[in-house]
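Input chain follows. Return structure tokens only.
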Amino acid sequence: MSRPLGPSRWLVAVPMALLAVATVYPLLFTANVAMKTRREYVLDRFSLTGTLRWDNLGTAWNSDGMGRYFLNSVIVVACAVALLLLIGSMAGFALAQVRFRGSSALALVCLVALFIPFQVIMVPLARIMADGGLIDTYPGLVLAYVAQFLPFTVFLMTSYYRAVPTELVDAARIDGNTLYGVYRRVMLPMGAPALLSVGILDALFCWNDVLISLLMMPSADHRTLMVGITALRGQYSADIPTFAAGVLIAGLPVLVTYLFLQRQIADGVTAGATKG
């Protein structure tokens, strides 16, 4: 027989249960609205749908530009994550294992940058991108994502590489490897679990972004999926079920990624808390 929960466990179980309900309910509500007819939604938006209107998903997907928006998101997220992992792993290796003047100060700068909201750097970043002719281009949005999420990537990779014994680096140097050789042959394979975790988190951050994408890609042809969903709301202002179907389509890749890779995501979140 299972033992009943004690008072101390109830103090943890009840808030966690409320948090779970608050997290799951918006998803269930959106899915329910996406399956309703417009008439059902107007009459009672909170009731369970009587019929499953799968054609709402087709209407949202076939709306003007949704397929293009999806492709734009895939291209930008893939390029941004690749750059973030490459630069972040190199910087993390350098800050954690390479002895040079100013390494502690650079690590502190990366830590401080984590606490700077994007709204603070939004105007100067947009000005720099405009002067460089990068507004409304894939490279412009990719570089903006790298600038925003690189401190997070560097911080986690540095924390991970600090746990690697320095004897491994010294042995690789004695064998004749350059610093790049140590990074490519030793640190990169050893950092594969951390790279996977951080890559998943970076991909989720970039996929869910609206503000940076809206700033860097204002034209309709270059919108990402999340920005395209907001345009769908304007196009179907009276058809909330179609809008909810679009939101559901945009959220499905994130949901599937989390369901299958939740262990790696949790490892990525806790990687920066490990003591090297």
